[in-house]
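Input record, target 12 of the design panel.
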């Protein structure tokens, strides 16, 4: 409501001012501490056509998912035009990238199992993140948890993320064994998403904290593993493009996931659901829950011997 929004503006501004010096400090540390490259320098070729087509396809899709059912009906000419525009741009993008000297979308990497595994983990992690961002509203509006207590419920996630990142970094640096963390990542996503789907007003608070903790562990491994696997398994010539595209897909996956949440809530509201927020979030949580199962066969079929001979400083 308006009063709460107005009162929240100074708090939001305060958070932004706190982040400003921290961001400046991080940028300075990167500038001073990043080592110089030792390889030969070549003039980069920018794939302008691929960049424009990828941007157009993404913007059309995001606008369709964000505004469909709200600004225009799902069964409308606008929906058809946006879907057609996104599909046409994607088809043109594939045709352009096959002939591009330095493609922005590395099509040959889609035949690389290292790239596919990292891409799948990053995409599941990104889609789950966008749903998790709505959980504090879910706790307050659907479960009846007070705002201070909903903030307490998020704390286990943050603590688990930090502890898991430290533990996983030490484990990978010492063993360079990725199979068990990858399977653990899929299992954690399945457990945390499965618990969150069942959230209701009668859910005990300790179950909420447990699910948040499990998700913190899953999200931490989901963010670290794709880059670690790529740094160890990619060929030198594919390292930059492979990691960059995995990061890009993660970012776009988060945006698409956020749009899907809005889309699901709009559909639930138009269908007359009693609690559109709950129905929409549970639908997307179910999608991430099912997607997590796909990580298990990918991890089991992956040739982990490819990563066993990587240099120690590649992780």
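The sequence produced for target 12 reads:
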């Amino acid at each position: 409501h308006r009063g709460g929004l107005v009162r929240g503006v100074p708090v939001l501004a305060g958070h932004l001012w706190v982040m400003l010096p921290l961001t400046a400090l991080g940028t300075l540390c990167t500038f001073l501490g990043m080592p110089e490259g030792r390889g030969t320098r070549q003039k980069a070729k920018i794939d302008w056509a691929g960049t424009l087509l990828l941007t157009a396809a993404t913007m059309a899709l995001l606008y369709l998912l964000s505004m469909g059912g709200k600004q225009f009906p799902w069964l409308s000419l606008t929906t058809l035009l946006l879907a057609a525009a996104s599909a046409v741009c994607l088809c043109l993008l594939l045709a352009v990238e096959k002939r591009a000297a330095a493609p922005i979308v590395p099509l040959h990497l889609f035949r690389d199992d290292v790239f596919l595994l990292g891409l799948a983990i990053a995409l599941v992690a990104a889609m789950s993140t966008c749903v998790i961002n709505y959980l504090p509203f879910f706790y307050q509006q659907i479960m009846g948890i007070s705002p201070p207590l909903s903030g307490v419920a998020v704390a286990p996630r943050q603590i688990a993320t930090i502890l898991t990142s430290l533990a996983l970094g030490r484990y990978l640096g010492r063993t360079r064994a990725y199979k068990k963390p990858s399977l653990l990542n899929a299992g954690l996503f399945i457990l945390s998403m499965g618990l969150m789907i069942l959230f209701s007003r009668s859910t005990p608070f300790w179950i909420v904290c447990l699910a948040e903790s499990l998700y913190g562990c899953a999200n931490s491994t989901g963010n670290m593993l794709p880059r670690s696997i790529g740094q160890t398994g990619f060929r030198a010539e594919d390292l930059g493009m492979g990691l960059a595209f995995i990061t890009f897909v993660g970012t776009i996956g988060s945006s698409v996931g956020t749009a899907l949440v809005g889309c699901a809530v709009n559909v639930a509201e138009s269908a007359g659901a009693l609690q559109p927020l709950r129905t929409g979030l549970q639908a997307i949580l179910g999608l991430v829950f099912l997607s997590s199962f796909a990580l298990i066969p990918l991890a089991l079929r992956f040739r982990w011997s490819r990563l066993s001979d990587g240099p120690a400083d590649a992780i």
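Confidence is low (pLDDT under 50) at residues 1-9, 309-315.
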